[in-house]
Design a protein that fits this description.
Layout: H1 15-27, E1 41-43, E2 55-60, H2 70-83, E3 92-96, H3 100-112, E4 115-120, H4 126-134, E5 138-141, H5 154-167, E6 171-172, H6 184-188, H7 190-197, E7 204-208, H8 213-222, E8 230-236, E9 270-274, H9 276-290, H10 296-312, E10 317-322, H11 336-341, H12 349-357, E11 362-363
Parallel strand pairs: 2-10, 3-4, 3-6, 4-5, 7-8, 7-10, 8-9
Antiparallel strand pairs: 1-2, 9-11
Helix pairs in contact: 2-3, 7-8, 9-10
Length: 364
């Protein structure tokens, strides 16, 4: 019923899983859990003049089958739980999620025959709810009055997920926020993909921070191999991860109301704490100038990456990680009424360049 608490030395999937992969390869087909990764990497050219001087690259994890990078975590953690006997046929997967990880688990659960229960809250946007339901997941809502002092629902959701896992037979709760295996998914998938694509000459990787699985998996795998590489974190204003003051925020995908146990700040060269108005403005600029309709957190990550490009100077090669697609944010970030209702005014043209240039890095 509990999430995995002990991380053995990093290993690939079990021999049985490898045999399954080989079997699928022989017959010329794979199931959805084996269709992850090796996503396109595109170069930004129109969003900012700095892209003409530096190589600003975006790894489109939005091109995974379910539309996000969190499917890698879902497949990896489910497979490890199966190997450890924590998740057995007919079992139930229970998790707290505001969106993408829940969708990833629902996708894997549908493919492998598990019941999936996702604990959500009022911040969970309608498209995420519909996606979860479409995969057959059951949703459990946590009421707004259980929010913590900063307005976050994360602790309340996690508490509810833990309670459900304790009462439902054969339940498994991966607890992405605390699970030390969360980062191994990105050592197994994302970091190795980056290594294969960039055997040398990569100056920095810019990654959003929430549970810290993505950024730590990438950092721990790549830094020993590329000692000069800068690993840069991106957080949202209102989150406390980087030591900045807590306040309510609407962003999902990055940010937490507590410090994630998996995060080792000593592995980061710097971080950016990006205001939501800048992040959402970058989202709109990516759609209109680059033809890339991407998720809310991508706006913050690209803002940080563009600031970093200015700092590193001409000929820098910077890779930014895009976590998810933008279609699931059409009723929020890409909706003028939602932006107006929450007091977000889009920043455009040179004013957006100036806003990005005004960001102040956090150093460790």
């Amino acid at each position: 019923m509990n999430y995995l608490t002990q991380s053995s030395s990093f290993k690939k999937f079990s021999s049985s899983e490898c045999n399954n992969r080989n079997r699928y390869k022989k017959i010329g087909s794979v199931d959805v859990t084996q269709a992850l990764g090796n996503v396109p990497i595109v170069r930004l050219g129109n969003i900012s003049g700095v892209c003409l001087e530096s190589e600003c690259l975006l790894k489109l994890e939005s091109c995974n089958p379910g539309g996000s990078i969190k499917e890698k975590n879902a497949v990896y953690l489910v497979t490890r739980a199966e190997e450890e006997g924590l998740l057995t046929p007919g079992g139930t997967i229970i998790e707290s999620s505001s969106g993408n990880f829940g969708v990833g688990l629902a996708m894997v659960g549908a493919a492998r025959g598990y019941r999936v229960i996702i604990v959500v809250d009022a911040k969970t946007a309608p498209p995420f709810r519909r996606m979860l339901a479409a995969y057959g997941a059951e949703l459990v809502d946590v009421p707004l009055h259980e929010a913590d002092e900063s307005g976050s629902m994360q602790k309340a959701r996690m508490k509810r997920a833990k309670e459900l896992a304790a009462t439902i037979p054969h339940a498994w709760y991966p607890c992405q926020h605390l699970n030390p295996l969360n980062l191994e998914a990105h050592s197994y998938y994302t970091a190795r993909e980056i290594e294969a694509h960039f055997p040398s000459d990569l100056d920095a990787v810019v990654v959003g921070v929430s549970t810290a699985g993505q950024i730590m998996g990438i950092a721990r795998y790549l830094l020993p191999r590329f000692p000069g590489l800068q690993v840069v974190g991106v957080d949202v204003e209102g989150s406390v991860i980087m030591g900045t003051p807590a306040k309510p925020y609407k962003m999902t995908g990055i940010g937490l109301s507590f410090f994630p146990p998996n995060l080792d700040l000593s592995l980061l060269s710097r971080a950016y704490v990006v205001p939501e108005a800048i992040a959402y403005s970058v989202c709109h600029a990516l759609a209109r100038r680059e033809g890339l309709l991407l998720g809310a957190s991508t706006g913050a990550i690209v803002a940080g990456g563009l600031h970093l490009a200015r700092e590193l100077g001409p000929d820098a090669r910077i890779l930014m990680i895009n976590p998810d697609r933008g279609d699931r944010y059409l009723e929020t970030v890409y909706d003028a009424n939602w932006l107006d209702h929450h007091g977000f005014a889009l920043i455009e043209g040179e004013h957006l360049d100036d806003a990005i240039a005004s960001l102040s890095p956090v150093y460790f």
